[in-house]
Amino acid sequence: MSEADWKSGPWEDSFTQREPYEGKAPRQKTTFKILYDDNFIYVGIKAFDSAPDSIVRRMSRRDNLDGDYVGISFDSYHDRRTAFNFIVTASGVKDDATMTNDGDNEDDTWDPIWYVKTSLTSWGWSAEMKIPFTQLRFNKNSSSVWGLEVVRYIYRYAETDFWQPIARSAPGFVHLYGELGGLGNIKPKKQLDLTPYMVAGVESYQKEEGNPFSTGHKNRFKAGLDGKIGVTNNLTLDFTINPDFGQVEADPSEVNLTAFETFFREKRPFFIEGKNITSFSLGFGDGDLSQENLFYSRRIGRRPQYEPDLRDNEYIDSPKNTSIIGAAKLTGKTESGWSVGVIESVAAEEKAKIAYEGEQHSQAVEPLTNYFVSRVQKDLNKGNTLIGGMVTNTSRQLDDVLKNYLHRSATTGGFDFTQYFDNKNYIFTLNAAFSKVDGTKEALLETQTSSRHYFQRPDATHIRLDSTRTSLSGFGGNMQFGKTGGNLKFLLATMAKSPGLELNDVGYLRSTDQIFQVFWMGYRFNEPKGIMRKANLNLNQWNVWDFSGQYLNSGGNVNGYIEFKNYWSFHGGVNFDSDEVDNYILRGGPGMIVPGGMNIWYGIETDERKKLKLSYFGNNRWNKFNSRTSSSYSPEIEYRPNNTLNFSFEPSLYKQERELQYVDEYSFNGHNRYLMAHLDQKVLSFSMRVNINLTPDLTIQYWGQPFFASGKYNDFKTITDPKADQFSDRYSAFKPDQLTYNSSDEMYYIDENQDGTTDYSFEQPNFNFNEFLSNLVVRWEYTPGSTVYLVWSQSRDYSDSLGDFSLNQGFDDLFNGDQPYNVFLIKFSYRIGLH
């Protein structure tokens, strides 16, 4: 700040508190100035502080704000909807993000190349930013005026100050920015960055005698190229050739006893950057419904979908994931106001090696696949009207085996419309989507009978299983009207998913054949009062039907959040569910009435600004007739002994007893038998994290999770009348002389008619599953955009069929058994910036 350029001219200093006391003067003074030349925009911010020794300068990893910070946000398109944020903490850690949809969506995975230095002074601290115009997107015909916001956060007060006041009750965000003028002489710059990389590594694991693929050792080497090209001044092409994501943290362990696929968060940098642009959600809110989308990037590079059946003494070496040959992503906004997001990716054919009695052959387990995703949206009426659309296509080259399991092609499309009213205080949205999949009769039969559809349900009058079908079409969408401004907000919404809707080739769809009606209302208490710093209270109500018009379920909840003036917080809620007609519980069988119930959730957190932070989260559920009870308990300890070290430990215990847990389906005398059992399930995990942040560009991160799960099945029964009025009349438990267990082969034998002859049998379903996952990653960004990773990952697992939960035995089985699977690798990338 001592350079001559910063000393000439005035500094802007008109800041206002946003939190905790909206509209009041800040406790500390802040000033800023903006300069530019042909290639860069420079931002100087002075954060004055009457107690400089109280400035919190914690070190953290990029995009994880901790401590005092300042930042600037540019609406460089000046479309009043899109903004680019550049934030820096007092310790020099960067946080950058893009904001879309008037600030409703924020994407902190955007990591532009920019430069910043911070300094601690006798009067406070300062930040000087140098931002290349290549990293900002703007139209050459509208560069004279940008939207602008500047922010400061004072950690010890939990105070946020804005240069341009924006009320916390305001609808939206970006459209309320101030303006930055005087930029008429700048010219947009096209970006061209090439980043080649190399990965070398070694894997070690337990050698298996007789298995030619399990030698105990593997070497790994890979090279590829990432790039970023400015196609125009505001459209950027990102591409990757032969990418490697070995530095990405593993997914947490889980035991999924439902019929539905688990949703996993995307962690790969290429796919998470700009993910908001290519999103087309069928649902709303922040629960399971919000995950259903026309694009789910985890489909690209997925685990191979085909698993060959093996004979005794036959061995297989199957890839864990599908290799991505290359991917390209075009994103940006045209001068005419079209937001564009296009992804093209090709995944390689993967083959498994199979060995039997000294001979080997291969079998394709995932075909060569092309994925195409395109999303556009147009701003009209100064951003108050939005229209958009999306199209995706998945195309596969299938051999004679895979063609019976996978779709040859899959296409989805959608249209969306948004209209704001009354200065954006009210909103109306409408979206609609369709899908069409094609393939062989065998592949379409697999689709129709999958857990997303269950067309074979015998009591369904509006759908039927067609074994000759070679294509399937469906539709879905939602309509919403709500109030987004003010302290009192509400949303009235409806959502539908037809029985034939199919998105899972490149999207995510949990279930179909549902029509939802939802109402939500919430009130925000933004001003501190009494012991309260801020709070909110919410009410929810919903009804669900299927496409035959059958009523399925209704429910509602009350929940709230309060932050106290000592910065502790509490949240909680209570949820009520009516009896539900569950069309999925018998997994292709008839719908069944499941007793309703209630659950209570709650959590408390201490002051997160302190070195030691404690929190506790709990959830308890009770269903009528003791048909299901469950509880979960999750305490957490987070400790920061100094500005560079952060440690957290989070144990989690989940317990469930369910009277009707699905086991299997059998046929007896021409009738289907749906076997259920009482389940006693326990899951215990310990999640541990250690972050050592030596500098803003050099970090060490460790994550480890021991995981122990057990399930004990007993009191086996069959479903007799799934919709009987009385719960006990819906099933019939096996009598002692109908059920025989053979411990030597762990099989149950059923003599249903008690004639002394086994009618059907099933394998004992008890389980214990223990797993340990860990990742140690050293990351050094030795120059902006160029990085070195050192990675050590380890996994252990153990399973048996006892079903009894024992922590001591679990630890012994897991850590005193076979050699773990270790992966050591080094990844080196170097950014070549060409302008």
From TrEMBL:
Carbohydrate-binding domain location: 6-150
Recorded hits in Gene3D superfamilies, A to Z, give: 2.60.40.1190
Which InterPro entries does the UniProt record give? Carb-bd_dom_fam9, DUF5916
What start and end residues bound the annotated signal peptide? none
Superkingdom: Bacteria
Segments for region (Disordered) = 1-24
Q: What is this protein called?
A: Uncharacterized protein
Q: What is the lineage of its organism?
A: Bacteria, Pseudomonadati, Bacteroidota, Bacteroidia, Marinilabiliales
Q: Which GO terms describe its biological process?
A: carbohydrate catabolic process
The residue ranges flagged as biased composition, category Basic and acidic residues, are 15-24
Q: Please tell me the species this chain comes from.
A: Prolixibacter bellariivorans
Which residue stretches, if any, does this entry annotate as coiled coil?
A: none
Where is the DUF5916 domain positioned along the sequence? Answer: 191-831
Gene Ontology MF terms = carbohydrate binding; hydrolase activity, hydrolyzing O-glycosyl compounds
